[in-house]
Amino acid sequence: MKYRTVLFDLDGTLVDSAELILRSWRHTMRVHFGEAPPDEDWLETLGMPLRTQFRRWAGTPAEIQAMIDTYVEHNLREHPTWIRPFRGVRSTLWGLTQKSVGLGIVTSKAKRGAAASLAACGIDAGLFGTIVTSDEPVPHKPDPAPVRLALERLGEKAERAVFVGDSIWDIRSGRDAGVATAAALWGPFPETTLSAEGPTHSLSHVTDLLDLAGGAPQV
Predict the structure, then answer these.
(1) Where are the domains of the chain?
(2) At residue 142, does pLDDT exceed 70?
């Protein structure tokens, strides 16, 4: 059976934003603490909402918000320089739409940042039937709620969908939502880390999706 709907994570899956994310993290920590801890401290929680990530270093909600504001301001300003689509993403998205495959995004990024990322990478947001962001009033990845929300909005059954992501949080969220999962091995995390989560598929390149997905015949 070919999947009728493909859900994507954004950062590390559709767009190569690792350098942008790390630069924004280092900038934020230097502004608020004078120096930045090792990048590995941030990468441990990559894929979670900023509010969750910054709780480790901030003691109050006001401090968390101040760090988020610093991060977002720097991140949005640097988008044009440090973000790009992964090779083959735009052609794959176009190919999937030509096969009548439904598309959606499930990201831990806020709506404003997600829109900026897509625009900076020349990816048409209109290709996606839904874009679920961290602004939604539901628990975030690794909880299955955002994947379920995307399916609900698209009117799709879990067994006909696959969620593609580069982090363990994506695999766990999709698995617990009852959809097939595909590890995006072109992202920043090693294959061994993702394979340990037992994804349904492990994809070396985004174009591999063209063999996995196919919608209803056009009439």
Answers:
(1) 5-16+84-212, 18-82
(2) yes
Question: Choosing from 9, 11, 166, 170, which is the catalytic residue?
Answer: 9
Provide the residue type at 198 as one letter. Answer: G
Written as six digits, the tokens of 160 are 């006909």
Q: For residue 90, count CB atoms less than 10 angstroms from its CB and return exposed for 0-12, middle for 13-18, buried for 19 or more.
A: middle
* 209, two tokens: 């999706």
Instruction: Give φ, ψ of 191 to 5 degrees.
Output: -60, -35
Q: Give exposure, 181-194, as e/b (b: 16+ Cβ within 10 Å).
A: bbbbbbbbbeeeeb
CA torsion through residues 133, 138, 139, 143, sign = negative
**Domain 18-82: CATH superfamily, name plus number:** Putative phosphatase; domain 2 (1.10.150.240)
User: What is the token pair recorded at 47?
Assistant: 């894929």
Considering only residues 45 and 195, tell me which one the structure prediction assigns the higher pLDDT.
Answer: 195
pTM given for the model: 0.91
The HSE-up count of residue 36 (CA atoms within 13 Å, CB side) is 18
CA distances from 69 to 19, 113, 156, 180 (A): 19, 12, 36, 35
Is residue 9 annotated as part of the catalytic site, yes or no? Answer: yes
DSSP 8-class letter at 140: -
Three-state DSSP class for 10? Answer: coil
∠ at Cα 193 (1, 110), nearest 5°? Answer: 80
Q: Topology of 5-16+84-212 in CATH?
A: Rossmann fold (3.40.50)
pLDDT at 215: 64
